[in-house]
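=== Structural record ===
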Amino acid sequence: MSAIPKEVIKELIGEQKFSNTTEVMNAIKEMFRDVRCIAAP
């Protein structure tokens, strides 16, 4: 799995009107909700 470019995260944060860091973190979690990472044994 590759890293998300910083620009994508900055754009998401810049477009929204967050009032605290908890809202920022919840938005990022929601963005990645469908992404699953399963470590190989």
